[in-house]
UniProtKB/TrEMBL annotation:
Keywords: Toxin-antitoxin system. The keyword Heme does not apply. It comes from the Bacteria. Belongs to the RelE toxin family. InterPro entries: ParE1/4, RelE/ParE_toxin, RelE/ParE_toxin_dom_sf, TA_system_RelE-like_toxin. Gene3D superfamilies: RelE-like. The keyword Cytoplasm does not apply. This is Toxin. It comes from Aminobacter carboxidus.
């Protein structure tokens, strides 16, 4: 793999995760959790982790990988990048977040 790319929605998800975690559990925990998310994205891109599970029920070709209490939704692009589409809490109505796109 060549690396990973965060979609604008995934960047917004990380911002929201940061804000919530920092407010609820403090800045140190927010830093650790965001680093865990970014480390997982990098590991997916480098092939260091299994490729997650199929999320074809969301969109064809999508996969998901669990990190903490969140799922990283991604796909592999034609040029072999990991495209991180969304990062959503496991308790969220995931389908509704994807139904509102496009």
């Amino acid at each position: 793999m060549k690396g990973y790319i965060l979609s604008p929605a995934a960047r917004g998800d990380l911002d929201a995760i940061w804000n919530y975690t920092a407010e609820k559990w403090g800045i140190d925990q927010a830093v650790r959790y965001i680093f865990d998310m970014r480390d997982a994205c990098q590991a997916l891109a480098s092939g260091g982790l299994k490729k997650g599970r199929s999320a074809d029920n969301i969109r064809a070709g999508y996969r998901k990988f669990s990190v903490g209490s969140h799922f990283i939704f991604y796909r592999i692009s034609a040029d072999r990048h990991v495209e991180v589409i969304r990062i959503l809490h496991q308790r969220m109505d995931v389908q509704s977040h994807f139904d509102n796109e496009n």
